[in-house]
């Protein structure tokens, strides 16, 4: 079932869990993530990077999602991740996606606020939610981002900008980073608590891959209601494929459909683990009730 992203996150905020937001790569990874959601009876946000959507095209990604999601009992939404391109956001909004992340973290504060307000106005007119990022989260993901802290602001400033732009969710720097960690990150769950003293807008955690179950638990108890996972899916996808191809090569047996099945199984198992770590298993009914 297709539901608004905001409905999922409101339910998560009330029930103290986080909705997994998983970056898919293709139809195979899409079906694996949806299978994980169905197996665990969890709501899941299907995220797509700018790089992926430009590779497949907005129309094909939209149709793939709708084909899978409309027949699924799991609450699902389609979300454009880390997009600094206003024109692509407009195309996705026109296609009826449920939410977008407008990444204005490479702009100065005034420009970031002005463009975020324009994106929100356009998206809300079509019933699409907007996640706002105006201070950059460390790391490069699919060609978007920076390994340096370019813009950083106080909690009060970020909340004031969200209020003025009417953004639905806030993606702040919380000590995490995109990609794989090379050293232990200095996590900031207390910063989440600072946000929630000033706003009821959902707070989003980026850079979920590599954190421990305890780390996730601390962030969820602090009030995070959406956690992004990308690198872990890519790694499970490629490792499952490699394991299959190693066996196929040894046996000289080459059957692509078996490869697809093994990759789907590997990715599904990986995402099932995150769903449980985020306490989202069994929460599908809460979201379904909120839709009624």
UniProtKB/TrEMBL annotation:
UniProt cross-references to InterPro entries, sorted A to Z: Aldolase_TIM (IPR013785), Class_II_FBP_aldolase (IPR050246), FBA_II (IPR000771)
Q: What Pfam families does its record include?
A: F_bP_aldolase (PF01116)
Please give the cofactor(s) recorded in the UniProt entry for this protein. Answer: Zn(2+)
List where the protein spans the membrane: none
Spell out the PANTHER family in the cross-references: D-TAGATOSE-1,6-BISPHOSPHATE ALDOLASE, D-TAGATOSE-1,6-BISPHOSPHATE ALDOLASE SUBUNIT GATY-RELATED
The protein, known as: Fructose-bisphosphate aldolase
Give the source species: Tessaracoccus lubricantis
Q: What is this organism's lineage?
A: Bacteria, Bacillati, Actinomycetota, Actinomycetes, Propionibacteriales
């Amino acid at each position: 079932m297709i539901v608004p992203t905001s409905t999922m996150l409101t339910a998560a905020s009330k029930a103290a869990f986080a909705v997994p937001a998983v970056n898919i790569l293709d139809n195979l990874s899409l079906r694996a993530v949806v299978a994980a959601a169905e197996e665990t009876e969890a709501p899941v946000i299907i995220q797509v990077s700018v790089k992926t959507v430009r590779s497949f095209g907005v129309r094909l990604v939209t149709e793939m999602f709708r084909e899978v999601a409309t027949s699924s009992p799991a609450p699902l939404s389609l979300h454009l991740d880390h997009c600094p391109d206003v024109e692509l956001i407009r195309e996705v909004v026109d296609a009826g996606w449920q939410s977008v992340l407008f990444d204005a973290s490479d702009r100065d504060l005034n420009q970031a606020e002005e463009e975020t307000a324009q994106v929100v106005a356009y998206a809300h007119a079509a019933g699409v939610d907007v996640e706002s990022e105006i201070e950059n989260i460390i790391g490069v993901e699919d060609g978007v981002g920076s390994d340096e802290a370019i813009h950083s602001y106080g909690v009060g400033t970020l909340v004031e900008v969200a209020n003025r732009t009417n953004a639905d969710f806030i993606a702040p720097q919380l000590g995490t980073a995109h990609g794989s960690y090379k050293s232990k990150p200095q996590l900031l769950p207390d910063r989440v608590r600072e946000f929630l003293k000033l706003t009821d807008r959902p707070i989003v955690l980026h850079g979920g891959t590599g954190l421990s179950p305890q780390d996730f638990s601390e962030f969820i108890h602090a009030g995070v209601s959406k956690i992004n996972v990308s690198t872990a899916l890519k790694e499970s996808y490629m490792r499952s494929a490699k394991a299959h191809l190693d066996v196929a090569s040894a046996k000289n047996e080459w059957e692509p459909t078996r490869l697809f099945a093994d990759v789907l199984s590997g990715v599904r198992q990986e995402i099932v683990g995150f769903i449980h770590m985020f306490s989202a298993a069994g929460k599908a009914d809460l979201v379904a009730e909120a839709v009624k």
